[in-house]
Amino acid sequence: MERVRFAPSPTGPLHIGGLRTALFNYLYARKHYGVFILRVEDTDQNRYVEGSERYIQEALEWCGMVPDEGPYNGGEFGPYRQSERKSIYLEYIRVLLENEKAYYAFDSTEELSTARTEAEQKGHAFRYGAHNRLQFVNGLTLSNEEIEERKKGDYVIRLKVDPGAMVSVFDEVRGTVAVATEELDDKVLMKSDGMPTYHFANVVDDHLMQISCVIRGEEWLPSLPHHQLLYDAFQWQSPKFMHLPLILKPSGKGKLSKRDGEKEGFPVFPLQWKESIGYKEKGFLPESMVNYLALLGWNSGTEDELFSLAELEKRFSVSGVQKGGARFDYEKARWINHQHLQKKSSEDLLQFDEFQTALKDFTSAQQLMIVALIKERLYTLDDVYEEVRLFISPYPFDDKALEKILLKNPLLVLEEAQKVIASGVPAEALKEVLLEWATKQSLGVGVVMQSLRIALVGKLSGPDLFAIITVLGNSVSLRRIENAITYINLKQKS
Known about the structure:
The protein is mainly α. It folds into four domains: 85-244, Glutamyl-tRNA Synthetase, domain 3 (Alpha-Beta Complex), CATH 3.90.800.10; 258-345, Glutamyl-tRNA Synthetase, domain 2 (Orthogonal Bundle); 346-388, no CATH class; 393-493, Orthogonal Bundle (Arc Repressor Mutant, subunit A), CATH 1.10.10. It is 46% helix and 9% strand. It has 20 helices and eleven strands. The chain has helices spanning 16-31, 52-62, 86-98, 109-121, 144-150, 198-208, 224-234, 258-264, 286-295, 309-315, 330-343, 346-349, 353-358, 364-374, 383-392, 399-406, 410-422, 427-440, 445-456, 465-493; strands spanning 3-6, 35-38, 102-105, 156-159, 166-171, 175-180, 188-190, 213-217, 240-244, 247-248, 326-327. The protein has a three-stranded antiparallel β-sheet with strand order 3-4-7. Strands 1-2 form a two-stranded parallel sheet. Helix 1 (16-31) links the parallel strand 1 and strand 2. Helix 1 (16-31) packs across helix 10 and helix 17 crosses helix 19. The longest helix has 29 residues, at 465-493.
């Protein structure tokens, strides 16, 4: 059975880049009738942020990606928090030490800092490895007695990378990755606080949790050879690997960041985190968020762009994952959301809090009519407040538009509309009656429609004009027309 894991660190809210990684893991699992696991990699306790773990779970649930196994769902392969697996890591680090695949290192922070500075002054990047490890204070340069004595203080445990070999790993997206071991450093596996590093813990956990395919961001690609060396050191079969392309800034170079969202006015988190608004609070549907994220780095092989989560589960394939970075486009995300909103019935839309709040003062019949009128104008659920506004009160008159209409005698149109509406002509017949009158008066259709729209709405854009009159009713429509006539008269006198 295919088993995949999404393994975030609870060091803050889940970024949409992380959510995209979770989505690809989820889709891979569902496509292969496998298991989707949430594993919390919280070994860096200094960076742990209260509430972020719960946030991650809630973000996944909002998107419909409920983990099959994890801290909140349980499972046979737990614990699913790395901080609760310390005894497991100690057992496996002991195996590496006994087999001389790892060693104790007692170098102080100051000593390492000095060595790093000296290397940089010579124009080299500092690397602790086979070429210089015998110059440091570690288990390869000390006697057993000295090692035991030094273990009373601080130390780390490093992977022993032997020179003279090639590490070759196949990535499902990028092909074969091959690196000479001379290019690799002796990575720290266990930190001085007794907690494992990401490199060690994720390999041990992936093996013990029977992960069949590791799907993660391309920032981890340089670490892949080290992880393969750990699998080899334990004589374990390594899983398949798939490194996903980065989500890039909307413009310029580099990875999408929170600062980009703040600068350009769009969220970078799925849900609200403290003062930072998320896509949910911005009025995005979870299905549209999932749809858009799927398009960032994956292609169905067709021209199709609109997918439900269920459709993505069926159509997702490794072959569709791209190597190049995917540029984030907030307007495209809004367009995707717009399309998903159009698919919903008026009755379904009325279930959302935004609609219930905006339409609370209208009757059920009016609510349905208003939703039908404004639905095609909505890009987010938040747009409902602005679109409903005209049914509550008209916008301030658009003076620029009005100045153009004044040359066409709008008062003649409005006074005739007053008479027709007051006579009780139903809204559905009003258009035909007014246009027939306009023809007799040699007035263009545009003059009639623009004059009425300015009077009823305040500006020249909005839903169907006569449907607006139906919702407003005759008395409200007449009052707005009367106000417009008064305003135009004052305008002409000034």
